[in-house]
Amino acid sequence: MRTSRSPWQEFFWGLWTVVAAFGCYFSMYAFRKPFTAGSFNEPLLAQMDFKSVLVISQVFGYMLSKFIGIKVIAETPPHRRVLGILILIALAQLSLIGFGLTPRPWNLVFMFFNGLPLGMVFGLVLGCLEGRRSSEALTAGLCASFILAGGVMKSVGTWLLRDRGISEDWMPAAAGGLFTIPLGICLVMLALVPPPSIEDIAARTERSTMSGQDRWAFFSRYAPGLLPIIVFYLLVTILRSLRDDFQPEIWKTLGSTFTSSTFTKSETLVTLGVIAVNGTAVLIRNNRLAFFTALGTCGVGLGLLAGSLIGHHLDLMNDFTFIVLLGLGLYLPYVAFHTTVFERLIAMTRDKGTVGFLMYVVDAIGYLGFVGIVLLKNYISRSTNVVELLIISSWASVVISTIALVISWVYFSKVQPRQSKLTELEVRISS
């Protein structure tokens, strides 16, 4: 039932919601990322190392999940989200147990089945956060989980391998087991989150399930502006995933030593900077202004990305600073899409849509691109190390993404809200 809430109730439930969402998705990463701390460095296929095959296998399952999620996330009703998350993560953990039980290289198939359910978890969690006046702050907290968890779970994996003596094949399942209870607690909290209030709906529009016809109508209506965004997001996702999944190899290639805490330290700094910038969009009440401010944030991220590359080339910074600034440049636009761009696009146009639907459209394409870049690394650029690949890809992305951002900005500057959708209450609150 939609009701009004007092400021104190809003604060309490906002804090409750962000803790629940953060905890759920942070715990989910324990079932996805710790394996990347392993070396898995034996040759497998045409000189491709086993780790690359595992990364491709999991990401391919994750990518396929995003395509499936375009339909599933858009059509899942609110009361089924928490149960859906529980089922998906349970299937992922069973796959990790199968990975430990099965000898190499046949266990690589279980990494595919690990990624297949996990790709839909984010959309189900996000559905509990969108369409609220505090959505940017809530989603920023959710995004903080996957930025921070990427480093923390590598530290957990490294700790299990080096300090606890667990084998590489069983380490992923052991890491997932450590976070089973925290995940359960956070899922219970998420189940108790109330729906958006009537004031939320007035300010941001109501978010309802979308049929196939609804999805096609929304996308086709704004395609000239959405397609450049998809290109931008594709490039950012490729670079983010390359930096994230091959961070141990990046450190080794740079010639820097690292410990289990190095990943946590670098990603903590990136998290603090990105959330501080993107989370403040909640203070902008005007949806149109917030939308274009978010696009501007994407531009700032591209500037930081270029600056980190120049600084590294001229030896103006150490390797740790380079990795952190590179992360800031990539995550600023990446998180802006999650927190603000799509949230305020729907609120600005007053059209029927959900952030989950739009995120899964761009995520599906983004992960498809990452699979391609990993294959290129192994089959086409054998003489190119991972750092050189990262730098070349980053410069290409800066140029192409800047062009895409300008095209999208120009298009959406001409889009006006669908005035017929506004009610008297919506006009009064959103003004």
UniProtKB/TrEMBL annotation:
Q: Which residues span the membrane?
A: 12-32, 52-70, 82-102, 108-129, 141-161, 173-195, 216-239, 268-284, 291-314, 320-337, 357-380, 392-412
What the entry lists under InterPro entries is as follows: DUF5690 (IPR043745)
- Write down the superkingdom of origin: Bacteria
Instruction: Keywords in alphabetical order, please.
Output: Membrane, Transmembrane, Transmembrane helix
Q: Which Pfam families match?
A: DUF5690
* Name of the protein: Major facilitator superfamily (MFS) profile domain-containing protein
